[in-house]
């Protein structure tokens, strides 16, 4: 299995058998870092880290030159710079990443309407119906890689296989800037020698439990009776692993897939114990998440918070809302309610707000009384002001003053919906 620094990379030769490999997983290479290098060519070939530039910022992305020193996403910046002291650190520019992401997604949609964005920089494509127009899956994958480079200046890696699960493994193994094709009849031979940790959904705890029983590879799973898997990692996970090890994955590419969650979290420059300050941050995050939901045309049926204390212990709490909403005031208040019910023995290092169970806005119908009507009008006016004057033109008075975060990282940036010509999202 290839590693995050590009070592162990595997790619397919020209003319490789692509029989039945009609599902593509396309993943941009070190996307944030690659965009920074694209915009500043003097950084090319150098170790570059994108993230908070002072205090306790975290790594958002890193070039492969930096990854070879052990730098990884979500790593504290202080640790990253100890591993790679000669790295150039640049702050993230999310608006620019969203712009290039939209261009990349448009390239995908030019080839097939069956595109399922997973995040800002990766997507599944079903090209089984595009053969007559564009050729075999391998030919389509090569064309896509060439178009992405020509139209954006960025590189991507592609895995082609018969299922989403195998395609994603293949794209990871082909990084950076590669293409790995797994013909349908080669699926078992491809999977068998891989570590069990390569399987979707097998986290460290499940992997440790399996390895304790001598189950180290996918081939070992094939030789393990199903009841043993269930006793080791539970019925649900055991069933999933049994199927995936055999290349069985019934999931289809979902072009109308909605993000599972939209959230925002930030790491503070110094630990904070004052609940008034922390509640203010939760309110600010609620406003930010609500704005992103409205921009994408979504509403959330649940709100969650994430709190990391000074000893790095992390807790999460979730609350189901009475009605789905995209109102920042409602989201922020739900987050504060969760926070107030939480036992807080230590100062807080990181805090975040996430909305879950997303659905298209307005699908839940109107309640008899709309408790959020006034806030909905206020936030609609804020959206108009942001569209005209940019982010931060108008904000809460409580949010004014010096920021306490360092290079906060936005999670699950919304992928732009394509315009179908009638003003409605596709």
Account of the 3D structure:
A hairpin with a 4-residue loop joins β10 (298-309) and β11 (314-325). α4 (94-111) packs antiparallel against α6 (137-152), α11 (226-233) crosses α12 (235-245) and α13 (275-296) runs antiparallel to α14 (328-340). This protein has helices at 31-39, 64-67, 77-83, 94-111, 131-134, 137-152, 164-173, 187-191, 204-212, 218-222, 226-233, 235-245, 275-296, 328-340, 373-389; strands spanning 23-28, 48-51, 59-62, 88-90, 115-119, 122-126, 156-161, 179-181, 261-272, 298-309, 314-325, 348-360, 409-411. The chain has 426 residues and is an alpha+beta fold.
Could you tell me the number of beta strands?
13
The residue fraction in helices comes out at: 25-40%
Strand order, largest beta sheet: 5-6-1-7-8
Q: Give me the secondary-structure category.
A: alpha+beta
Overall mean pLDDT: 85
Beta content comes to 15-25%
Return the CATH topology of the largest domain: Alpha-Beta Plaits
Terminal residue distance: 37 Å
Low-confidence stretches: 365-370, 403-426
What's the number of domains? 3
Major sheet attributes: 5 strands, mixed
Count of runs of 4 or more consecutive helical residues = 15
Order of helices and strands: EHEEHHEHEEHHEHEHHHHHEHEEHEHE
Give a summary of the structure in a few sentences.
By secondary structure, this protein is of the alpha+beta class.
């Amino acid at each position: 299995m290839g590693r995050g620094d590009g070592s162990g990379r595997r790619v397919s030769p020209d003319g490789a058998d692509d029989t039945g490999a009609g599902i593509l997983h396309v993943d941009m290479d070190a996307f944030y870092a690659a965009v920074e290098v694209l915009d500043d060519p003097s950084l090319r070939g150098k170790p570059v880290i994108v993230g908070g530039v002072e205090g306790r910022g975290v790594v958002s992305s890193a070039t492969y030159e930096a990854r070879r020193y052990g730098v990884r996403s979500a790593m504290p910046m202080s640790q990253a710079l100890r591993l790679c002291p000669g790295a150039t650190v640049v702050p993230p520019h999310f608006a620019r990443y969203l712009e290039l992401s939209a261009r990349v997604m448009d390239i995908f949609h030019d080839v097939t309407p069956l595109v399922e964005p997973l995040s800002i920089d990766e997507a599944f494509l079903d090209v089984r119906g595009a053969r007559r127009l564009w050729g075999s899956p391998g030919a389509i994958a090569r064309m896509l890689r060439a178009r992405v480079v020509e139209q954006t200046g960025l590189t991507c890696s592609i895995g082609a296989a018969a299922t989403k699960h195998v395609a994603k493994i293949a794209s990871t193994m082909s990084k950076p800037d590669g293409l790995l094709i797994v013909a349908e009849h080669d699926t078992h031979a491809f999977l068998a020698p891989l570590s069990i940790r390569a399987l979707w959904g097998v986290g460290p705890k499940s992997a440790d439990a399996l390895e304790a029983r001598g189950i180290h590879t996918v081939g070992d799973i094939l030789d393990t009776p199903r009841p043993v898997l269930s006793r080791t990692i539970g019925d649900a996970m055991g069933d999933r692993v049994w199927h995936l090890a055999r290349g069985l994955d019934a999931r289809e590419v979902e072009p109308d897939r909605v993000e599972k969650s939209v959230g925002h979290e930030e790491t503070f420059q110094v630990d904070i114990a004052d609940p008034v300050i922390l509640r203010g941050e939760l309110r600010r995050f609620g406003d930010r998440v609500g704005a992103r939901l409205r921009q994408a045309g979504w509403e959330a049926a649940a709100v969650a918070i994430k709190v990391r204390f000074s000893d790095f212990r992390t807790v999460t709490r979730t609350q189901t809302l009475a009605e789905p909403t995209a109102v920042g005031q409602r989201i922020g208040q739900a987050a504060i309610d969760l926070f107030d019910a939480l036992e807080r023995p230590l100062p807080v290092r990181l805090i975040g707000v996430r909305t879950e169970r997303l659905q298209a806005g307005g699908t839940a119908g109107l309640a008899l009384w709309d408790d959020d009507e006034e806030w909905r009008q206020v936030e609609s006016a804020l959206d108009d002001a942001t569209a005209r004057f940019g982010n931060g033109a108008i904000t809460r008075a409580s949010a004014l003053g010096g920021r306490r975060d360092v290079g906060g990282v936005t999670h699950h940036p919304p992928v732009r919906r394509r315009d179908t010509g009638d003003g409605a999202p596709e």
